[in-house]
Amino acid sequence: MGFPAGYTDVLLPKLLINTLSFLGFLRHFVLAVLSLVGLSGLVDPGPDPSARPDPVMTRPESASAALIREMLPAETVSVRAGGGPGLGGCAVCLYEYEDGEEIRRMRNCQHVFHRSCVDRWIEHDRKTCPLCRKPFVPKELEDDFNDKLWAASGIPDFYSDYSHITHFL
Question: How many CB atoms lie within 10 A of CB 65?
Answer without folding.
Answer: 19
